[in-house]
């Protein structure tokens, strides 16, 4: 009962992380325009994402344009494209493998031990996808902070952390948490299975000892 609840919780947390990872990959709010010095009245906001950049004017009108070339992006955003796509694919694969290994599903027609290894695989994939996303988001955030405090960078080119980065951190923690839950579930099942195997062996040893003792008593009575 507890194992089934633990699997459902891990699947839900992993599903939230998977959806969050896909949303972060497509969101344009990775870099947000920073307003410093004498910029008191703000008329427009600039968003820069992995696939497009948007300009929002006075909270009324927003225009978005897809990048004409990958070379127009900075180095960190170019690498982030591939890493976030890989993280999204890994999280989706981990979610599907986790569904196949659930106790309530019959996708894998084999023993519970085989399903345990399927759950372990799903947990490792969740942790890997979460680590990839965490590294990507942290890398971009570090680049934004470094440029912000760099006096050589023009004020108009300085950016702040966007909402996509915060959502990316939350999604990566969900993926890692889901993977940890599935790995812990596999570990608990292995301990329970080992205890279950050792108990019958002990009982069978006692039965054999009792059987031998009974035979020896019968043999002595026959001699008497």
UniProtKB/TrEMBL annotation:
GO terms for molecular function: structural molecule activity. Keywords: Cell junction, Cell membrane, Membrane, Tight junction, Transmembrane, Transmembrane helix. The chain crosses the membrane at residues 81-105, 117-145, 165-186. It is found in: Cell junction, Tight junction; Cell membrane. GO terms for cellular component: bicellular tight junction; plasma membrane. It holds the Pfam family PMP22_Claudin. InterPro entries: Claudin, Claudin_CS, PMP22/EMP/MP20/Claudin. It comes from the Eukaryota. It is a multi-pass membrane protein. Belongs to the claudin family. PANTHER family: CLAUDIN (PTHR12002). Claudins function as major constituents of the tight junction complexes that regulate the permeability of epithelia. This is Claudin. It comes from Turnix velox (Little buttonquail).
């Amino acid at each position: 009962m507890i194992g089934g609840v633990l699997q459902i919780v891990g699947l839900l947390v992993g599903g939230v992380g998977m959806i969050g990872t896909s949303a972060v990959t497509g969101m344009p709010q990775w870099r947000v325009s920073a307003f410093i010095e004498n910029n008191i009245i703000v008329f427009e906001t600039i968003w820069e994402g992995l696939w497009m950049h948007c300009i929002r004017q006075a909270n009324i009108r927003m225009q978005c344009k897809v990048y004409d070339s990958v070379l127009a992006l900075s180095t960190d955003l170019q690498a982030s494209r591939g890493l976030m796509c890989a993280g999204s694919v890994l999280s989706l694969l981990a979610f599907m493998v986790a569904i196949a290994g659930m106790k309530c599903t019959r996708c894998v027609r084999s023993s519970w031990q085989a399903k345990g290894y399927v759950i372990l695989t799903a947990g490792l994939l969740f942790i890997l996808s979460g680590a990839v996303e965490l590294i990507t988001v942290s890398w971009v955030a570090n680049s934004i902070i470094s440029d912000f405090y760099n006096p050589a960078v023009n004020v108009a080119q300085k950016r702040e952390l966007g909402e996509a980065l915060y959502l990316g951190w939350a999604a990566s923690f969900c993926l890692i948490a889901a993977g940890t839950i599935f790995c812990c579930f596999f570990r608990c099942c292995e301990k329970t299975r080992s205890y279950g195997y050792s108990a019958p062996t002990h009982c069978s040893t006692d039965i054999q000892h009792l059987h031998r003792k009974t035979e020896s008593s019968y043999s002595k009575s026959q001699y008497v």
